[in-house]
Fold this sequence. Notes:
The structure holds two protein chains of two kinds. Chain A has helices at residues 17-46, 50-53, 70-78, 81-113, 118-129, 133-146, 153-159, 161-177, 181-189, 194-205, 207-223, 226-231, 240-247, 256-276, 278-290; strands at residues 249-250, 253-254. Chain A is mostly helical. Chain A has two domains: 4-68, no CATH class; 73-286, MetI-like fold (Orthogonal Bundle), CATH 1.10.3720. In chain A, strands 1-2 form a two-stranded antiparallel ribbon. In chain A, a hairpin with a 2-residue loop joins strand 1 and strand 2 (253-254). Chain B is mainly alpha-helical. Chain B is 75% helix and 0% strand. Chain B contains 14 helices and no strands. In chain B, helix 4 (79-110) packs antiparallel against helix 11 (215-243), helix 9 crosses helix 11 and helix 13 runs antiparallel to helix 14 (278-309). The radius of gyration of chain B is 27 Å and the shape is globular. The chains are: A mainly alpha, B mainly alpha. At the A-B interface, helix 1, helix 4, helix 5, helix 6 and helix 8 of A face helix 2, helix 4, helix 5, helix 6 and helix 7 of B.
Amino acid sequence: MTTTEDQSVGMSYLDSWPRRTLRIYLPLGLIVFFLLFPFYWMAVTTFKPDAEMYDYEKYNPFLIAHPTMEHVYKLFFETDYPQWMTNTIIVSISSTFISLFASVCAAYAIERLRYKGSRYVALGIFLAYLVPPSILFIPLAAIVFQLGLFDGNLALILTYPTFLIPFCTWLLMGYFRTIPYELEECALIDGATRLQILTKITLPLALPGLISAGIFAFTLSWNEFIYALTFISSSENKTIPVGAITELVNGDVYHWGALMAAALVGSVPVVILYSFFVEHYVSAMTGAVKE
Amino acid sequence: MAVIAEPVVQAPRASLLSRALENRSFLGSLFMLPAILILVLFLAYPLALGFWLGLTDTSIGGTGHYVGIANFVSLAKDSVFWLSVFNTIFYTVTASVVKFAIGLYLAVLLNERLPFKSILRAIVLLPFVVPTVLSAIAFWWIYDSQFSIISWVLIKAGLIHNYIEFLGDPWNARWSVVVANIWRGVPFVAITLLAGLQTISPSLYEAANLDGATNWQRFRYITLPMLSPIIAVVMTFSVLMTFTDFQLIYTITRGGPINATHLMATLSFQRAITGGHLGEGAAISNAMIPFLVAAILLSFFGLQRTRWQQGGRD
Protein backbone atom coordinates (compact mmCIF):
# COMPACT_ATOMS: atom_id res chain seq x y z
CA MET A 1 0.00 0.00 0.00
CA THR A 2 1.51 3.29 -1.09
CA THR A 3 -1.37 5.60 -0.30
CA THR A 4 -3.22 5.61 2.96
CA GLU A 5 -6.83 6.01 2.02
CA ASP A 6 -8.67 6.45 5.20
CA GLN A 7 -12.26 5.91 6.22
CA SER A 8 -11.98 5.74 9.97
CA VAL A 9 -13.44 8.37 12.22
CA GLY A 10 -10.24 9.14 14.02
CA MET A 11 -7.95 9.79 11.09
CA SER A 12 -10.15 11.32 8.42
CA TYR A 13 -8.33 14.66 8.72
CA LEU A 14 -5.70 13.08 6.47
CA ASP A 15 -8.11 13.24 3.53
CA SER A 16 -7.65 15.91 0.92
CA TRP A 17 -10.59 18.18 0.13
CA PRO A 18 -11.38 17.11 -3.44
CA ARG A 19 -11.28 13.45 -2.49
CA ARG A 20 -13.54 14.03 0.50
CA THR A 21 -15.99 15.90 -1.67
CA LEU A 22 -16.18 13.08 -4.18
CA ARG A 23 -16.27 10.27 -1.64
CA ILE A 24 -18.54 11.73 1.02
CA TYR A 25 -20.30 14.97 0.15
CA LEU A 26 -21.46 14.01 -3.33
CA PRO A 27 -23.21 10.71 -2.42
CA LEU A 28 -24.48 12.25 0.80
CA GLY A 29 -25.87 15.19 -1.14
CA LEU A 30 -27.62 12.91 -3.63
CA ILE A 31 -29.25 10.78 -0.94
CA VAL A 32 -30.36 13.81 1.08
CA PHE A 33 -31.79 15.36 -2.09
CA PHE A 34 -33.77 12.15 -2.75
CA LEU A 35 -35.05 12.14 0.84
CA LEU A 36 -36.05 15.80 0.90
CA PHE A 37 -37.40 16.40 -2.60
CA PRO A 38 -40.97 15.15 -1.88
CA PHE A 39 -41.24 17.69 0.96
CA TYR A 40 -40.03 20.49 -1.27
CA TRP A 41 -42.52 19.46 -3.93
CA MET A 42 -45.29 19.28 -1.30
CA ALA A 43 -44.51 22.84 -0.13
CA VAL A 44 -44.16 24.28 -3.64
CA THR A 45 -47.51 22.82 -4.72
CA THR A 46 -49.26 24.05 -1.59
CA PHE A 47 -48.48 27.69 -2.24
CA LYS A 48 -48.78 27.65 -6.04
CA PRO A 49 -51.91 29.00 -7.74
CA ASP A 50 -53.77 26.53 -10.01
CA ALA A 51 -52.89 28.53 -13.15
CA GLU A 52 -49.17 27.95 -12.57
CA MET A 53 -49.53 24.39 -11.33
CA TYR A 54 -50.75 23.00 -14.63
CA ASP A 55 -48.65 25.16 -16.98
CA TYR A 56 -45.07 23.96 -17.07
CA GLU A 57 -44.27 25.77 -20.33
CA LYS A 58 -44.94 29.30 -19.11
CA TYR A 59 -43.73 28.93 -15.51
CA ASN A 60 -40.76 27.04 -14.11
CA PRO A 61 -42.40 24.24 -12.08
CA PHE A 62 -39.74 24.39 -9.37
CA LEU A 63 -40.50 27.98 -8.46
CA ILE A 64 -43.60 29.91 -7.49
CA ALA A 65 -44.25 33.12 -9.45
CA HIS A 66 -47.23 34.29 -7.39
CA PRO A 67 -47.44 32.54 -4.00
CA THR A 68 -50.98 32.07 -2.73
CA MET A 69 -52.70 30.92 0.47
CA GLU A 70 -55.77 29.94 -1.56
CA HIS A 71 -55.35 26.16 -1.02
CA VAL A 72 -54.70 26.45 2.71
CA TYR A 73 -57.64 28.82 3.07
CA LYS A 74 -59.89 26.40 1.16
CA LEU A 75 -58.71 23.54 3.37
CA PHE A 76 -59.58 25.31 6.61
CA PHE A 77 -62.83 26.99 5.62
CA GLU A 78 -64.42 24.74 3.02
CA THR A 79 -63.64 21.25 4.33
CA ASP A 80 -63.83 19.41 7.65
CA TYR A 81 -60.06 19.72 8.03
CA PRO A 82 -60.12 21.64 11.37
CA GLN A 83 -62.39 18.93 12.77
CA TRP A 84 -60.03 16.16 11.55
CA MET A 85 -57.17 17.96 13.21
CA THR A 86 -59.07 18.22 16.50
CA ASN A 87 -59.87 14.49 16.33
CA THR A 88 -56.27 13.60 15.58
CA ILE A 89 -55.05 15.68 18.52
CA ILE A 90 -57.62 14.22 20.94
CA VAL A 91 -56.95 10.64 19.84
CA SER A 92 -53.17 10.96 19.83
CA ILE A 93 -52.92 12.62 23.24
CA SER A 94 -55.40 10.30 24.96
CA SER A 95 -53.97 7.09 23.56
CA THR A 96 -50.43 8.23 24.37
CA PHE A 97 -51.31 8.94 28.00
CA ILE A 98 -53.27 5.71 28.45
CA SER A 99 -50.37 3.76 26.97
CA LEU A 100 -47.76 5.55 29.07
CA PHE A 101 -49.71 4.89 32.28
CA ALA A 102 -50.23 1.20 31.50
CA SER A 103 -46.64 0.79 30.30
CA VAL A 104 -45.03 2.46 33.31
CA CYS A 105 -46.95 0.15 35.65
CA ALA A 106 -46.21 -2.95 33.56
CA ALA A 107 -42.53 -2.17 33.00
CA TYR A 108 -42.02 -1.43 36.71
CA ALA A 109 -43.73 -4.66 37.70
CA ILE A 110 -41.72 -6.74 35.25
CA GLU A 111 -38.35 -5.13 35.95
CA ARG A 112 -38.54 -4.34 39.64
CA LEU A 113 -41.24 -6.39 41.37
CA ARG A 114 -40.14 -9.49 39.47
CA TYR A 115 -43.28 -11.35 40.39
CA LYS A 116 -43.75 -15.00 39.52
CA GLY A 117 -43.83 -15.49 35.76
CA SER A 118 -42.75 -11.94 34.94
CA ARG A 119 -40.19 -13.24 32.43
CA TYR A 120 -42.93 -14.96 30.45
CA VAL A 121 -45.05 -11.82 30.50
CA ALA A 122 -42.04 -9.88 29.18
CA LEU A 123 -41.69 -12.38 26.36
CA GLY A 124 -45.41 -12.12 25.63
CA ILE A 125 -45.13 -8.34 25.42
CA PHE A 126 -42.25 -8.64 22.98
CA LEU A 127 -44.32 -10.99 20.81
CA ALA A 128 -47.26 -8.57 20.97
CA TYR A 129 -44.87 -5.95 19.61
CA LEU A 130 -44.40 -8.09 16.49
CA VAL A 131 -48.12 -8.44 15.69
CA PRO A 132 -48.81 -6.05 12.81
CA PRO A 133 -52.04 -4.00 12.72
CA SER A 134 -52.75 -5.14 9.17
CA ILE A 135 -53.61 -8.67 10.36
CA LEU A 136 -55.62 -7.41 13.35
CA PHE A 137 -57.90 -4.83 11.78
CA ILE A 138 -60.61 -7.20 10.49
CA PRO A 139 -61.39 -9.00 13.78
CA LEU A 140 -60.88 -5.71 15.64
CA ALA A 141 -63.48 -4.08 13.42
CA ALA A 142 -65.94 -6.80 14.45
CA ILE A 143 -65.12 -6.26 18.15
CA VAL A 144 -65.32 -2.46 17.90
CA PHE A 145 -68.71 -2.86 16.27
CA GLN A 146 -69.97 -5.27 18.95
CA LEU A 147 -68.86 -2.93 21.73
CA GLY A 148 -70.75 -0.06 20.08
CA LEU A 149 -67.58 2.00 19.66
CA PHE A 150 -67.78 2.13 15.86
CA ASP A 151 -67.37 5.57 14.25
CA GLY A 152 -66.16 7.44 17.32
CA ASN A 153 -62.93 8.73 18.80
CA LEU A 154 -63.12 6.12 21.56
CA ALA A 155 -62.66 3.30 19.02
CA LEU A 156 -59.24 4.70 18.17
CA ILE A 157 -58.28 5.78 21.68
CA LEU A 158 -58.79 2.21 22.94
CA THR A 159 -57.23 0.35 20.02
CA TYR A 160 -54.08 2.45 19.45
CA PRO A 161 -52.62 1.29 22.80
CA THR A 162 -52.43 -2.24 21.34
CA PHE A 163 -49.35 -1.24 19.36
CA LEU A 164 -48.20 1.53 21.75
CA ILE A 165 -48.16 -0.45 25.03
CA PRO A 166 -45.82 -3.24 23.84
CA PHE A 167 -43.44 -0.67 22.41
CA CYS A 168 -43.49 1.70 25.43
CA THR A 169 -43.22 -1.15 27.95
CA TRP A 170 -40.25 -2.63 26.13
CA LEU A 171 -38.52 0.75 25.99
CA LEU A 172 -39.24 1.64 29.63
CA MET A 173 -38.04 -1.76 30.83
CA GLY A 174 -34.67 -0.85 29.35
CA TYR A 175 -34.63 2.48 31.17
CA PHE A 176 -35.75 1.03 34.51
CA ARG A 177 -32.96 -1.54 34.28
CA THR A 178 -30.35 1.22 34.32
CA ILE A 179 -31.56 2.64 37.66
CA PRO A 180 -29.52 1.21 40.56
CA TYR A 181 -31.39 -1.14 42.89
CA GLU A 182 -29.75 0.44 45.94
CA LEU A 183 -31.81 3.60 45.58
CA GLU A 184 -35.01 1.60 45.96
CA GLU A 185 -33.66 -0.46 48.82
CA CYS A 186 -32.78 2.70 50.74
CA ALA A 187 -36.30 3.99 50.25
CA LEU A 188 -37.78 0.65 51.33
CA ILE A 189 -35.74 0.76 54.54
CA ASP A 190 -36.95 4.30 55.17
CA GLY A 191 -40.50 2.91 55.02
CA ALA A 192 -41.61 4.09 51.57
CA THR A 193 -44.33 2.10 49.87
CA ARG A 194 -43.91 0.66 46.37
CA LEU A 195 -46.11 3.37 44.93
CA GLN A 196 -44.03 6.08 46.58
CA ILE A 197 -40.85 4.51 45.25
CA LEU A 198 -42.30 4.45 41.75
CA THR A 199 -43.52 8.05 41.74
CA LYS A 200 -40.76 9.67 43.82
CA ILE A 201 -37.64 7.76 42.77
CA THR A 202 -37.98 5.58 39.69
CA LEU A 203 -40.09 7.84 37.49
CA PRO A 204 -38.04 11.04 37.95
CA LEU A 205 -34.89 9.08 37.15
CA ALA A 206 -36.49 7.48 34.09
CA LEU A 207 -37.84 10.82 32.84
CA PRO A 208 -35.78 10.83 29.60
CA GLY A 209 -37.17 7.38 28.80
CA LEU A 210 -40.67 8.55 29.59
CA ILE A 211 -40.31 11.52 27.23
CA SER A 212 -38.83 9.29 24.51
CA ALA A 213 -41.66 6.80 24.78
CA GLY A 214 -44.26 9.59 24.87
CA ILE A 215 -42.91 11.44 21.81
CA PHE A 216 -42.61 8.26 19.79
CA ALA A 217 -46.04 7.02 20.83
CA PHE A 218 -47.58 10.39 19.96
CA THR A 219 -46.12 10.40 16.44
CA LEU A 220 -47.13 6.76 15.92
CA SER A 221 -50.74 7.51 16.81
CA TRP A 222 -50.73 10.72 14.75
CA ASN A 223 -49.56 8.69 11.74
CA GLU A 224 -51.82 5.67 12.26
CA PHE A 225 -53.97 4.89 9.24
CA ILE A 226 -55.47 1.42 8.88
CA TYR A 227 -57.51 1.38 12.13
CA ALA A 228 -58.75 4.93 11.56
CA LEU A 229 -59.73 4.04 8.00
CA THR A 230 -61.60 0.91 9.09
CA PHE A 231 -63.32 2.04 12.30
CA ILE A 232 -64.47 5.52 11.26
CA SER A 233 -67.08 6.20 8.63
CA SER A 234 -68.47 9.74 8.99
CA SER A 235 -66.40 12.71 7.86
CA GLU A 236 -66.58 14.66 11.12
CA ASN A 237 -64.98 11.78 13.07
CA LYS A 238 -62.04 11.19 10.75
CA THR A 239 -58.38 11.82 11.49
CA ILE A 240 -56.11 13.86 9.19
CA PRO A 241 -54.54 10.99 7.19
CA VAL A 242 -57.92 9.34 6.58
CA GLY A 243 -59.78 12.56 5.87
CA ALA A 244 -57.14 13.75 3.42
CA ILE A 245 -57.22 10.57 1.38
CA THR A 246 -60.97 9.89 1.43
CA GLU A 247 -62.69 13.28 1.54
CA LEU A 248 -60.45 15.55 -0.53
CA VAL A 249 -60.55 13.36 -3.62
CA ASN A 250 -63.88 13.56 -5.39
CA GLY A 251 -64.26 11.48 -8.48
CA ASP A 252 -61.50 11.84 -11.01
CA VAL A 253 -60.77 15.48 -10.21
CA TYR A 254 -57.77 15.73 -7.94
CA HIS A 255 -57.33 19.09 -6.27
CA TRP A 256 -53.60 18.72 -5.95
CA GLY A 257 -53.20 22.11 -4.30
CA ALA A 258 -55.62 21.26 -1.50
CA LEU A 259 -54.23 17.72 -1.18
CA MET A 260 -50.67 18.96 -0.83
CA ALA A 261 -51.81 21.65 1.63
CA ALA A 262 -53.52 18.92 3.69
CA ALA A 263 -50.33 16.84 3.63
CA LEU A 264 -48.13 19.79 4.58
CA VAL A 265 -50.38 21.12 7.36
CA GLY A 266 -50.86 17.59 8.74
CA SER A 267 -47.11 16.99 8.87
CA VAL A 268 -46.09 20.28 10.47
CA PRO A 269 -47.23 19.55 14.08
CA VAL A 270 -45.35 16.23 14.15
CA VAL A 271 -42.25 17.79 12.62
CA ILE A 272 -42.26 20.68 15.12
CA LEU A 273 -42.61 18.28 18.04
CA TYR A 274 -39.88 16.09 16.55
CA SER A 275 -37.52 19.04 16.07
CA PHE A 276 -37.71 19.85 19.79
CA PHE A 277 -37.09 16.26 20.87
CA VAL A 278 -34.85 14.80 18.16
CA GLU A 279 -32.53 13.11 20.63
CA HIS A 280 -35.41 11.54 22.54
CA TYR A 281 -37.05 10.39 19.33
CA VAL A 282 -33.87 8.79 18.05
CA SER A 283 -33.18 7.08 21.35
CA ALA A 284 -36.73 5.69 21.36
CA MET A 285 -36.31 4.38 17.83
CA THR A 286 -32.88 2.85 18.35
CA GLY A 287 -33.61 1.72 21.92
CA ALA A 288 -36.56 -0.33 20.79
CA VAL A 289 -34.40 -2.09 18.23
CA LYS A 290 -31.33 -2.66 20.35
CA GLU A 291 -32.80 -4.99 22.94
CA MET B 1 -67.68 -1.42 74.20
CA ALA B 2 -68.11 -0.35 70.62
CA VAL B 3 -65.25 2.07 70.88
CA ILE B 4 -62.90 -0.70 71.98
CA ALA B 5 -64.31 -3.32 69.59
CA GLU B 6 -63.75 -1.26 66.47
CA PRO B 7 -59.94 -1.33 66.34
CA VAL B 8 -60.00 -5.04 67.10
CA VAL B 9 -62.07 -5.68 63.98
CA GLN B 10 -60.12 -3.22 61.84
CA ALA B 11 -56.59 -4.31 62.73
CA PRO B 12 -56.46 -7.68 60.87
CA ARG B 13 -58.06 -6.15 57.76
CA ALA B 14 -55.51 -3.37 57.58
CA SER B 15 -52.67 -5.79 58.04
CA LEU B 16 -54.15 -8.09 55.42
CA LEU B 17 -54.17 -5.21 52.94
CA SER B 18 -50.71 -4.07 53.84
CA ARG B 19 -49.43 -7.62 53.72
CA ALA B 20 -50.99 -8.04 50.29
CA LEU B 21 -49.26 -4.84 49.16
CA GLU B 22 -45.96 -6.28 50.33
CA ASN B 23 -46.56 -9.45 48.35
CA ARG B 24 -44.72 -9.24 45.04
CA SER B 25 -47.07 -11.46 43.11
CA PHE B 26 -50.19 -9.62 44.23
CA LEU B 27 -48.63 -6.20 43.67
CA GLY B 28 -47.18 -7.35 40.36
CA SER B 29 -50.56 -8.46 39.04
CA LEU B 30 -52.11 -5.21 40.23
CA PHE B 31 -49.51 -3.19 38.33
CA MET B 32 -49.91 -5.35 35.23
CA LEU B 33 -53.68 -5.03 35.20
CA PRO B 34 -54.16 -1.99 32.86
CA ALA B 35 -51.71 -3.23 30.24
CA ILE B 36 -52.95 -6.83 30.32
CA LEU B 37 -56.58 -5.74 30.17
CA ILE B 38 -56.05 -3.70 26.99
CA LEU B 39 -53.75 -6.24 25.35
CA VAL B 40 -56.03 -9.20 26.02
CA LEU B 41 -59.20 -7.45 24.92
CA PHE B 42 -57.83 -5.66 21.84
CA LEU B 43 -54.88 -7.81 20.81
CA ALA B 44 -55.03 -11.42 21.98
CA TYR B 45 -58.78 -11.79 21.60
CA PRO B 46 -58.90 -10.28 18.07
CA LEU B 47 -55.96 -12.47 17.06
CA ALA B 48 -57.93 -15.55 18.09
CA LEU B 49 -61.14 -14.16 16.62
CA GLY B 50 -59.26 -13.61 13.35
CA PHE B 51 -58.37 -17.30 13.16
CA TRP B 52 -62.01 -18.19 13.75
CA LEU B 53 -63.36 -15.63 11.25
CA GLY B 54 -61.10 -17.09 8.57
CA LEU B 55 -63.02 -20.37 8.97
CA THR B 56 -66.47 -18.78 8.60
CA ASP B 57 -68.45 -17.04 5.90
CA THR B 58 -69.17 -13.98 8.06
CA SER B 59 -70.10 -10.84 6.17
CA ILE B 60 -70.70 -7.32 7.43
CA GLY B 61 -74.15 -7.11 8.99
CA GLY B 62 -74.73 -10.88 8.90
CA THR B 63 -73.93 -13.76 11.20
CA GLY B 64 -71.42 -16.26 9.89
CA HIS B 65 -71.38 -20.02 9.84
CA TYR B 66 -68.46 -22.37 10.17
CA VAL B 67 -67.35 -23.41 6.70
CA GLY B 68 -64.07 -25.16 7.48
CA ILE B 69 -61.28 -24.42 5.07
CA ALA B 70 -63.64 -23.39 2.25
CA ASN B 71 -62.20 -19.84 2.24
CA PHE B 72 -58.70 -21.16 1.75
CA VAL B 73 -59.81 -23.58 -0.95
CA SER B 74 -61.43 -20.77 -2.92
CA LEU B 75 -58.38 -18.54 -2.37
CA ALA B 76 -56.11 -21.28 -3.70
CA LYS B 77 -58.04 -21.08 -7.00
CA ASP B 78 -58.11 -17.28 -6.97
CA SER B 79 -55.54 -15.81 -9.37
CA VAL B 80 -55.87 -12.34 -7.79
CA PHE B 81 -54.85 -13.80 -4.44
CA TRP B 82 -51.76 -15.45 -5.94
CA LEU B 83 -50.92 -12.22 -7.73
CA SER B 84 -51.07 -10.41 -4.39
CA VAL B 85 -48.77 -13.05 -2.85
CA PHE B 86 -46.31 -12.52 -5.69
CA ASN B 87 -46.57 -8.73 -5.34
CA THR B 88 -46.02 -8.87 -1.59
CA ILE B 89 -42.90 -11.00 -1.96
CA PHE B 90 -41.55 -8.87 -4.81
CA TYR B 91 -42.26 -5.66 -2.88
CA THR B 92 -40.68 -6.96 0.33
CA VAL B 93 -37.56 -8.43 -1.27
CA THR B 94 -36.68 -5.58 -3.63
CA ALA B 95 -37.50 -2.79 -1.19
CA SER B 96 -35.68 -4.47 1.73
CA VAL B 97 -32.52 -5.16 -0.25
CA VAL B 98 -32.27 -1.59 -1.56
CA LYS B 99 -33.22 -0.10 1.81
CA PHE B 100 -30.44 -2.10 3.43
CA ALA B 101 -27.86 -1.10 0.81
CA ILE B 102 -28.67 2.63 0.80
CA GLY B 103 -29.30 2.67 4.56
CA LEU B 104 -25.93 1.10 5.39
CA TYR B 105 -24.15 3.39 2.92
CA LEU B 106 -25.85 6.45 4.39
CA ALA B 107 -25.02 5.31 7.94
CA VAL B 108 -21.34 4.94 7.03
CA LEU B 109 -21.35 8.40 5.40
CA LEU B 110 -23.05 9.98 8.42
CA ASN B 111 -20.49 8.37 10.71
CA GLU B 112 -17.74 10.48 9.08
CA ARG B 113 -16.54 13.75 10.55
CA LEU B 114 -19.09 16.17 9.08
CA PRO B 115 -20.10 19.76 9.72
CA PHE B 116 -23.66 20.14 11.11
CA LYS B 117 -23.78 16.40 11.76
CA SER B 118 -26.67 16.42 14.24
CA ILE B 119 -28.80 18.68 12.05
CA LEU B 120 -28.07 16.44 9.09
CA ARG B 121 -29.13 13.39 11.07
CA ALA B 122 -32.35 15.11 12.13
CA ILE B 123 -33.14 16.00 8.50
CA VAL B 124 -32.40 12.50 7.24
CA LEU B 125 -34.96 11.01 9.60
CA LEU B 126 -37.79 13.27 8.36
CA PRO B 127 -39.36 10.80 5.89
CA PHE B 128 -39.83 8.37 8.78
CA VAL B 129 -41.36 10.99 11.09
CA VAL B 130 -43.90 12.51 8.69
CA PRO B 131 -47.21 10.58 8.44
CA THR B 132 -46.76 7.97 5.72
CA VAL B 133 -50.11 8.60 4.11
CA LEU B 134 -49.39 12.30 3.74
CA SER B 135 -45.99 11.78 2.14
CA ALA B 136 -47.53 9.06 -0.04
CA ILE B 137 -49.96 11.67 -1.36
CA ALA B 138 -46.91 13.70 -2.42
CA PHE B 139 -45.57 10.65 -4.27
CA TRP B 140 -48.94 10.18 -5.90
CA TRP B 141 -48.67 13.72 -7.24
CA ILE B 142 -45.04 13.19 -8.30
CA TYR B 143 -46.19 10.11 -10.26
CA ASP B 144 -49.12 11.95 -11.91
CA SER B 145 -49.56 10.90 -15.54
CA GLN B 146 -49.89 14.43 -16.96
CA PHE B 147 -47.95 16.62 -14.59
CA SER B 148 -45.23 14.36 -13.20
CA ILE B 149 -42.20 16.46 -12.37
CA ILE B 150 -39.90 13.49 -13.03
CA SER B 151 -41.21 13.11 -16.58
CA TRP B 152 -40.92 16.84 -17.16
CA VAL B 153 -37.28 16.94 -16.05
CA LEU B 154 -36.39 13.89 -18.16
CA ILE B 155 -38.09 15.40 -21.23
CA LYS B 156 -36.27 18.71 -20.73
CA ALA B 157 -33.01 16.79 -20.43
CA GLY B 158 -33.83 15.10 -23.74
CA LEU B 159 -33.78 11.58 -22.29
CA ILE B 160 -37.39 10.65 -23.09
CA HIS B 161 -40.08 12.03 -25.38
CA ASN B 162 -43.36 11.18 -23.72
CA TYR B 163 -44.64 11.43 -20.18
CA ILE B 164 -44.04 8.17 -18.29
CA GLU B 165 -47.14 6.21 -17.26
CA PHE B 166 -45.90 5.68 -13.70
CA LEU B 167 -49.08 4.21 -12.29
CA GLY B 168 -50.85 3.07 -15.45
CA ASP B 169 -48.54 0.21 -16.39
CA PRO B 170 -48.26 -2.85 -14.07
CA TRP B 171 -44.45 -3.00 -13.83
CA ASN B 172 -44.00 0.76 -13.71
CA ALA B 173 -46.55 0.88 -10.91
CA ARG B 174 -44.78 -1.89 -8.96
CA TRP B 175 -41.42 -0.15 -9.19
CA SER B 176 -43.00 3.21 -8.34
CA VAL B 177 -44.44 1.96 -5.05
CA VAL B 178 -41.17 0.17 -4.27
CA VAL B 179 -39.31 3.49 -4.68
CA ALA B 180 -41.80 5.22 -2.38
CA ASN B 181 -41.31 2.46 0.19
CA ILE B 182 -37.53 2.74 -0.06
CA TRP B 183 -37.80 6.49 0.45
CA ARG B 184 -39.74 5.96 3.64
CA GLY B 185 -37.66 3.08 4.99
CA VAL B 186 -34.08 4.23 4.35
CA PRO B 187 -33.99 6.74 7.25
CA PHE B 188 -35.02 4.08 9.78
CA VAL B 189 -32.33 1.66 8.60
CA ALA B 190 -29.68 4.38 8.33
CA ILE B 191 -30.24 5.98 11.73
CA THR B 192 -30.48 2.71 13.67
CA LEU B 193 -27.36 1.36 11.94
CA LEU B 194 -25.61 4.66 12.66
CA ALA B 195 -26.33 4.11 16.35
CA GLY B 196 -24.68 0.71 15.97
CA LEU B 197 -21.67 2.16 14.10
CA GLN B 198 -21.04 4.65 16.88
CA THR B 199 -20.51 1.82 19.35
CA ILE B 200 -17.62 0.33 17.33
CA SER B 201 -14.33 1.30 18.97
CA PRO B 202 -12.10 3.51 16.73
CA SER B 203 -9.07 1.62 18.03
CA LEU B 204 -10.06 -1.37 15.88
CA TYR B 205 -9.79 0.81 12.77
CA GLU B 206 -6.51 2.30 13.95
CA ALA B 207 -5.06 -1.17 14.43
CA ALA B 208 -6.27 -2.16 10.95
CA ASN B 209 -4.67 0.99 9.51
CA LEU B 210 -1.32 0.07 11.02
CA ASP B 211 -1.65 -3.36 9.45
CA GLY B 212 -2.21 -1.67 6.09
CA ALA B 213 -5.85 -2.61 5.57
CA THR B 214 -7.70 -1.02 2.66
CA ASN B 215 -10.99 0.81 2.94
CA TRP B 216 -12.88 -2.21 1.73
CA GLN B 217 -11.05 -4.60 4.06
CA ARG B 218 -11.83 -2.38 7.04
CA PHE B 219 -15.49 -2.32 6.08
CA ARG B 220 -15.63 -6.03 5.32
CA TYR B 221 -13.70 -7.37 8.33
CA ILE B 222 -14.48 -4.81 11.04
CA THR B 223 -17.62 -2.80 10.33
CA LEU B 224 -19.80 -5.58 8.94
CA PRO B 225 -19.06 -8.28 11.56
CA MET B 226 -19.34 -5.79 14.45
CA LEU B 227 -22.62 -4.52 13.07
CA SER B 228 -24.23 -7.83 12.12
CA PRO B 229 -26.26 -8.38 15.32
CA ILE B 230 -27.94 -4.99 14.95
CA ILE B 231 -28.32 -5.48 11.19
CA ALA B 232 -30.26 -8.69 11.89
CA VAL B 233 -32.70 -6.91 14.21
CA VAL B 234 -33.11 -3.80 12.04
CA MET B 235 -33.71 -5.79 8.88
CA THR B 236 -36.16 -8.08 10.67
CA PHE B 237 -38.21 -5.03 11.66
CA SER B 238 -37.82 -3.56 8.19
CA VAL B 239 -39.01 -6.78 6.52
CA LEU B 240 -41.92 -7.01 8.96
CA MET B 241 -43.03 -3.43 8.22
CA THR B 242 -42.63 -3.85 4.46
CA PHE B 243 -44.43 -7.18 4.30
CA THR B 244 -47.46 -5.87 6.16
CA ASP B 245 -47.46 -2.48 4.43
CA PHE B 246 -50.86 -1.07 3.68
CA GLN B 247 -50.75 2.72 3.70
CA LEU B 248 -48.46 3.38 0.72
CA ILE B 249 -50.31 1.06 -1.64
CA TYR B 250 -53.74 2.18 -0.51
CA THR B 251 -52.80 5.83 -1.04
CA ILE B 252 -50.83 5.66 -4.27
CA THR B 253 -52.49 2.91 -6.34
CA ARG B 254 -55.32 1.27 -4.32
CA GLY B 255 -53.96 -1.99 -5.71
CA GLY B 256 -54.32 -0.96 -9.34
CA PRO B 257 -53.77 -1.02 -12.26
CA ILE B 258 -55.83 -4.24 -12.54
CA ASN B 259 -54.61 -5.58 -9.15
CA ALA B 260 -50.98 -5.28 -10.28
CA THR B 261 -49.84 -3.71 -7.00
CA HIS B 262 -52.26 -5.36 -4.56
CA LEU B 263 -50.45 -6.59 -1.46
CA MET B 264 -52.02 -9.22 0.78
CA ALA B 265 -52.89 -6.51 3.31
CA THR B 266 -54.64 -4.27 0.79
CA LEU B 267 -56.44 -7.23 -0.78
CA SER B 268 -57.74 -8.37 2.60
CA PHE B 269 -58.99 -4.82 3.26
CA GLN B 270 -60.71 -4.72 -0.11
CA ARG B 271 -62.42 -8.09 0.37
CA ALA B 272 -63.32 -7.62 4.05
CA ILE B 273 -64.20 -3.96 4.48
CA THR B 274 -64.98 -2.61 0.99
CA GLY B 275 -66.53 -5.87 -0.23
CA GLY B 276 -68.05 -6.83 3.15
CA HIS B 277 -66.78 -10.43 3.19
CA LEU B 278 -65.13 -10.44 6.62
CA GLY B 279 -64.51 -14.19 6.54
CA GLU B 280 -62.65 -14.14 3.25
CA GLY B 281 -60.62 -11.08 4.27
CA ALA B 282 -59.66 -12.72 7.55
CA ALA B 283 -58.58 -15.83 5.64
CA ILE B 284 -56.20 -13.66 3.55
CA SER B 285 -54.84 -12.07 6.75
CA ASN B 286 -54.31 -15.53 8.23
CA ALA B 287 -52.53 -16.61 5.07
CA MET B 288 -50.04 -13.79 5.73
CA ILE B 289 -48.97 -15.29 9.05
CA PRO B 290 -46.90 -18.25 7.77
CA PHE B 291 -45.17 -15.99 5.24
CA LEU B 292 -44.57 -13.44 7.97
CA VAL B 293 -43.10 -15.98 10.38
CA ALA B 294 -40.90 -17.36 7.59
CA ALA B 295 -39.73 -13.86 6.63
CA ILE B 296 -38.89 -13.02 10.25
CA LEU B 297 -37.01 -16.26 10.83
CA LEU B 298 -35.18 -15.95 7.52
CA SER B 299 -34.04 -12.37 8.02
CA PHE B 300 -33.24 -12.84 11.69
CA PHE B 301 -31.41 -16.15 11.66
CA GLY B 302 -30.07 -15.71 8.12
CA LEU B 303 -28.37 -12.49 9.11
CA GLN B 304 -27.32 -13.78 12.52
CA ARG B 305 -25.51 -16.70 10.91
CA THR B 306 -23.18 -14.44 9.01
CA ARG B 307 -21.79 -13.47 12.40
CA TRP B 308 -20.80 -17.07 13.14
CA GLN B 309 -19.18 -17.39 9.76
CA GLN B 310 -17.15 -14.27 10.20
CA GLY B 311 -14.83 -15.57 12.88
CA GLY B 312 -17.01 -15.20 15.98
CA ARG B 313 -17.55 -18.47 17.79
CA ASP B 314 -20.77 -17.68 19.64
